[in-house]
Amino acid sequence: MRYQGKLTQWNDDKGFGFITPNDGGERIFVHIKAFQSRQRRPAGDALLTYELQRGTDGRARAENVTFAEATKPTAAAPRGDNLLPMGLLGLFVVALGVAGLRGTLPLAVLGVYAAASLVAFLMYLWDKISAENGRRRTPENTLHLFALIGGWPGALIAQRRYRHKTRKASFRRVFWMTVALNCAALGLIARAGLRTVIGGA
Fold first, then answer.
1. How far is Cα 16 from Cα 127, in angstroms, rounded to an integer?
2. Cα 113 to chain centroid, rounded
């Protein structure tokens, strides 16, 4: 027998939440693994249908969960919201390459960005897989640390590629703060390098 209810609480980082049945009664525990489709991430107030089972502890839990047809699809992010960050990333990569060719940035700095971006990209991918399978997640502070030391280009690409960590407003605020701090530090390094080039000319 299938039941219907609303997802009134959801922790996307931990991959679980609670459903409030339409006919009343106790809230039902639901895990990300119980969803039949992984193409759409659960979100608060989503209308769901599910089968009811009892765990070994006797507590009710939802299984074979699907999004009800009456649920409105999640609004897509504005096109500008998708293009602007990637456009800024493109300009950053071009500026980084020009600075490297002009000698205003040490090659080691370019290497740090490349390595940190690769690691950040893989960390986001692993965290996405972990979220979908209920495994231990990568701490957000770790993701922010790699963004701060130069891995934010890879992190941004992973966010857009896997649609991961793009809805949580608090995470996005901190992420863009790390980007700003990193770019400010890079600007100071480039300025010092430019002075060295001019002084040696």
1. 15
2. 19
Domains of the chain (ranges; CATH) run 2-67 (2.40.50.140), 79-200 (no CATH)
What sign has the CA pseudo-torsion 72, 78, 83, 86? negative
Q: Which amino acid is at 74?
A: T
Sign of the torsion formed by the C-alpha atoms of 111, 117, 120 and 121:
negative
State pTM to two decimals. 0.60
pLDDT in tens, 77-127: 444 456 788 888 888 888 888 877 877 788 888 889 999 999 999 999 998
Cβ atoms of residues 197 and 102 within 8 Å: yes
Residue identified by tokens 């502070």 is 141
